[in-house]
């Protein structure tokens, strides 16, 4: 995944984050996980390429040893007057020396490709760390933006005509209840006076001697 694609991901989802389409932190973590997978995949490719480079170098070394061996065989055969055997050994020596060049070329090319990939992986890892810091900043900004929106919405609600009318309606209901309470208290003014008389009658019933005296 290129840096441009990573940046495009962040830009494309910024407004969704602000609109709370998903939790900002979860969203950004998903993108960072994608980058982590790319880094992991690239490192696996690096390890594979390094093994391949080492294989080419071993093959070049083995071919070099075989070339030296054939050269020695050709020398011995020539000294022994075995021209045909000497020529065959020289031909094989030439073949293996060509293989040395071939394998060394493969190893060089593989090393160049590995170094280039390693450099890109290093750059991506640095970008990844930068993005982690950016993620923390964006999450904090998104949370602050949402908090400000909630507070602003509540401020708007507390100063709205709807809320003021609701408080006024409740106040009017309480005032009506208070009026009714006062009216009920004034509807039977003799009720309070009857209570002592009843109490006196009850006292006489309990003490008949006092009532007859």
UniProtKB/TrEMBL annotation:
Q: Which UniProt keyword terms apply here?
A: Coiled coil
What residue ranges carry the coiled-coil annotation?
A: 114-187
Q: Which InterPro entries match?
A: PspA_VIPP1
User: What's the domain of life for this entry?
Assistant: Bacteria
Q: Which family does it belong to?
A: Belongs to the PspA/Vipp/IM30 family.
Entries under PANTHER family matching the protein: MEMBRANE-ASSOCIATED PROTEIN VIPP1, CHLOROPLASTIC (PTHR31088), PHAGE SHOCK PROTEIN A (PTHR31088:SF6)
Q: What is this protein called?
A: Phage shock protein A (PspA) family protein
Lineage of source species: Bacteria, Bacillati, Bacillota, Bacilli, Bacillales
